[in-house]
Write a structure and sequence with these properties.
single chain, about 170 residues, 5 helices
């Protein structure tokens, strides 16, 4: 039986809020190597991530921009790449004071088998970060519509879970 995702919230400092606001200014997505991971991700998590895909998109209905930083971690025991999204909403005035992690996601592709080229590159160089910063497709940024399916599903699922957490329970 698949695990249901769970969430955890973290507060952001004013500096981290400004960092999120900066990321929200560029709609679409872009790949970030480990050296450029945002500081709103805890240092202990940044150390375990190889890279991330930052996705930003506005919604007309709510007037919000959602930013998802989908951290990518190589799980050598499973020969796979795990996704760990962090989602935050940005209103026209400023970023939220906190964001939400989605742990053990339940979307298709949350853990994806790494392509053969990845493991060959890791074995030759020992640096997984290089592969993520320089994917075989050559794409490191683009429009939301062009985003690979597992990242797109992570983006929409993270937003869905954040919205559910923000709604008052009845």
């Amino acid at each position: 039986m698949p695990r249901r995702p769970h969430t955890s919230f973290i507060p952001l400092t004013p500096e981290q809020q400004r960092e999120v606001e900066g990321l929200s200014q560029s709609p679409g997505w872009r790949a970030l190597p480990q050296s450029e991971l945002p500081t709103f991700l805890p240092a202990s998590l940044r150390a375990r991530l190889d890279s991330a895909v930052v996705i930003s998109s506005s919604t007309v209905l709510s007037g919000r921009t959602y930013v998802v930083c989908n951290g990518l971690r190589v799980d050598r025991r499973a020969d796979a790449i795990d996704h760990e999204p962090f989602v935050i909403s940005v209103l026209s005035s400023d970023a939220s004071t906190g964001g939400m992690f989605v742990h053990h996601g339940d979307w298709n592709g949350r853990t994806e088998q790494a392509p053969a080229e990845f493991w060959e590159s890791v074995e030759r160089s020992g640096v997984g970060d290089y592969f993520f910063a320089n994917p075989p497709s050559g794409r490191t940024f683009g429009e939301l519509a062009d985003l690979d399916a597992p990242h797109k599903r992570a983006f929409y699922r993270a937003i869905e879970l954040l919205r559910a957490a923000e709604e008052p329970s009845t």
